[in-house]
UniProtKB/TrEMBL annotation, chains A, B:
This is AraC family ligand binding domain-containing protein. It comes from Candidatus Desulfatifera sulfidica. It comes from the Bacteria. Gene3D superfamilies: Jelly Rolls. Residues 35-100 form the Cupin type-2 domain. Pfam families: Cupin_2.
Length: 106, 106
């Protein structure tokens, strides 16, 4: 057992940038905390691999992004559930913290 | 892609009880939101299976529980990372919401 404290990775860089912390990496899953400053866009991307991921909004708001300019509003407590091979991204409208879970880890 | 709104499953039962919602179930992971009222103890348990889980505190405080009466303080933003076969549990000292991620899903 290991405790991870997300409070300890609450660090933002300059406007429009992202800071990230790999908070867990194991044979079954990877957890990454990204802290996006307002205006940052995490570009839509995908990987041609089997598996799934979640993007959970810990703080702030913006949008989950998908294929063909799809946008889904995203606020604290919202989780995007996606296949790894589906296009996915995030836009931060305010300073925004997200927790990404990837399984299996890539 | 599918959006999960944790705001929609913020429901507590009577004192000392737990309410839970399976918010995602897929070949790679299972996500369960448990809402524990103050005083509820999610008993220490384990399963003899390969895999890992995380228990993330969404709201409230209490303790992560482990083997041999181990206790680790748990507050909003804390995550317990554990093997599925390691004993794990939770005690809610206040009303407490947790998000459990299990991979592979069991």
């Amino acid at each position: 057992m290991k405790k991870i404290e997300l409070d300890e990775t609450r660090e933002f860089l300059d406007k429009g940038m992202k800071r990230f912390f790999l908070v867990a990496d194991s044979p079954y899953l990877k957890l990454i905390n990204f802290n996006l400053t307002a205006g940052h866009v995490f570009p839509v991307h995908s990987h041609d691999l089997d598996g799934q991921l979640t993007i959970q909004v810990l703080e702030g708001s913006g949008a989950f992004l998908g294929a063909e300019k799809a946008e889904i509003q995203a606020k604290t407590g919202d989780i995007l559930f996606s296949e790894i091979r589906e296009p996915h991204g995030v836009r931060a409208d305010t300073d925004m913290r997200i927790l990404v879970t990837i399984t299996p880890p890539i």
